[in-house]
Amino acid sequence: MLILGNLKAQVDKKKAVKPFQVVTPTAVGAIRGTDVEFNFNNQGQLTVDLKNDGPVQVFNDEAQMNLNLTDGKKISVGYDRQTGIIKIKNDCSSNGKVEFNVLGTEYAESPCEEKEINLETASGEPGTPNTPKNDKPENPDDLPSPSP
Fold first, then answer.
1. Contact 98, 73 (CB under 8 A)
2. Chain centroid to CA 18: how far?
3. Confidence check: pLDDT of 147 > 50
4. CA geometry: angle at 50 spanning 44 and 54, to 5°?
5. 106-131 in b/e burial notation, b at 16+ Cβ within 10 A?
6. pLDDT per residue over 43-93, tens digit each?
7. How far apart are CA 7 and CA 18, in angstroms?
8. How many CB atoms within 10 Å of residue 89?
9. Which region holds residue 112: left if phi is over 0, alpha if psi is between -120 and 50, else beta?
10. What is the DSSP letter of 138?
11. Which residues face 38 on adjacent strands?
């Protein structure tokens, strides 16, 4: 868990049985084998600087954002849960476009570009995608059948 500050990681892919994860309030970074730096600041911005070919997967389940970082790229991700705005910036030092997916839509940003995406709730108001607060199905026929 990275609440504030910097973290440098060198993960050996030959020894990594499952991804090494860096969890922040904005997003999670999953690393299988690479050199990478994470910085999380007090404005809620996560910067991921991939030092070699990668890959590093950066995701946010709540905003349904998924980004696979490769080839020495550097990105910044900001996520404001209250307004439902996610910002992704491809750093000017990156060598090529960064591709990512938010709410099922594909995006590609060139170096020095930033994409701001307004998430919408099911009612169309700004905010994060809603999940039902009541986990009980409205119709008893919708109950899952027990496993044998």
1. yes
2. 18
3. no
4. 125
5. ebebebebeeebebeeeeeeebbeee
6. 999 999 998 877 899 999 988 999 999 888 999 999 998 888 999 999 999
7. 19
8. 21
9. left
10. S
11. 7, 48
20-59 core/surface letters (b: 16 or more CB in 10 A; e: else): bebebebbbbbbbbbbbebbbeeeebbbbbbeeebbbbbb
Q: Residue 147 gets which letter from DSSP?
A: P
Computed over every residue of the chain, the mean pLDDT equals 82
For 121, residues 6+ apart whose C-beta sits below 8 A from its C-beta are 84, 127, 128, 129, 130
Q: Say whether 140 sits in a helix, a strand or coil.
A: helix
